[in-house]
Amino acid sequence: MKKKSKLPGLYLGVVLALMYVPILLVIIYSFNESRISSVWGGWSLRWYRDLFRDRDIMDAVTNSLILATISSLAAAVIGTLAAVGMPKANLRGKGIIEYLSTLPIMIPEIILGMVFLVYFTLMRLPFGMVTLVVAHTSFCIPYVYMLVKARLVGLDKSYEESAKDLGATDWNVFWDITLPLILPAITSGMLLSFAMSLDDVVISVFVTGVNTNTLPLKIYTQLKTGVTPKINALCTLMFLSTMLIVLLSAHFARKNVRKTERRITSEEASRMRDSIGLAR
User: Fold this and answer.
1) pLDDT tens by residue, 227-262
2) What is the DSSP annotation of 107-141?
3) CATH code of the domain made up of 61-224
4) Which pLDDT does position 22 carry in this prediction?
5) Which residue in 122, 116, 144, 143 sits closest to 202, CA to CA?
6) Which DSSP string do the residues of 164-216 spell out, in sequence order?
7) Contact at 8 Å (CB) between 56 and 213?
8) Distance of alpha carbon 73 from alpha carbon 207, whole angstroms
9) Banded model confidence at residue 278, pLDDT cuts 50, 70, 90
10) pLDDT value at residue 71
């Protein structure tokens, strides 16, 4: 009997260590009393207190969350409508349009930022939250579009055809059948868009205003004077918040799957009873 190789487990352990050890160190050093990260000065909550007292960082966090939320929601609506409507549109250059719609995620961010800068300047739009939302929504749309489009390709068309045969309108078919089936893809696209918007630096540098600051830009500008352990505390809180959201999402997803399985089981039992009744 051949022995199982330990290489896959070793490889997995190295990959997980490379991914999570830096995060663990950031969490540990967020409780460091010393201002210098390389010197351990004892356990303390000093930097968490300083973080919540820092008005500039709190304003930057608020702006980033507002920007990411609005951008991901707008991208979800536009990307979903584009993915659903594009296959039904009778256009000659539909393939070219679909290819162009994915360009924002293929073009280097510095080029995209310069394009937005020139465009907003020509449009005479004041740089600030409005230009940030437009720019972030533009490069977030392809993420939602591609995920929803992939989900639509795998759907069984008989559901929509059966609903239309029973007299349902296009709106009823989309709202009652298509939307629930593609909702996981929309949610995934929104979460990915939220993360990309929250993390963006390069494009935001070109389109932000003097009075509008986001968290990545705030951290980037602090690199010139030195990043304090307050950033470690902020990263720890954001990491824990993300983990909580992921756990809650997984919990509700499992509940939804169980509910669907029970519904399918009850429907199958009902069909069996009906078939037995007809046989009798």
Assistant:
1) 778 888 888 888 887 787 777 766 665 665 565 556
2) S-HHHHHHHHHHHHHHTTPPSSHHHHHHHHHHHHH
3) 1.10.3720.10
4) 85
5) 116
6) HHTT--HHHHIIIIIHHHHHHHHHHHHHHHHHHHHH--HHHHHH--TT---HH
7) yes
8) 20
9) very low
10) 93
Task: Name the band, by pLDDT with cuts 50, 70 and 90, for residue 132.
Answer: very high
Sorted by where each begins, the domain ranges of the chain are 61-224
Q: Which two tokens stand for residue 124?
A: 């005479």
Q: Is pLDDT of 179 > 90?
A: no
Predicted confidence band at 279 (pLDDT cuts at 50, 70, 90)? very low
**In the prediction, which pLDDT does 241 show?**
79
Q: Give the number of other CB atoms < 10 A from CB of residue 156.
A: 9
Strand blocks (E) in 23-126: none
Contacts 24+ apart (CB under 8 A), 257-266: none
pLDDT attached to residue 260: 53
Angle at 202 (CA atoms; ends 199, 206), nearest 5 degrees: 125
Burial tier of 195 (Cβ tally within 10 Å: 0-12, 13-18, 19+): middle
- 17-25 contacts at long range (C-beta below 8 A, 24 or more positions apart): 23/239
C-alpha neighbours within 13 Å on the C-beta side of residue 151: 22
Integer angstrom CA distances of residue 58 from 45, 62, 120, 137, 234:
17, 6, 28, 23, 10
β-sheet bridge partners, residue 32: 43
Using the structure block, give the residue that is written with the tokens 């720019």. 135
Indicate the DSSP class of residue 32.
Answer: B
| Percent of the chain with pLDDT strictly greater than 70 | 83
What are 127's two structure tokens? Answer: 């740089």
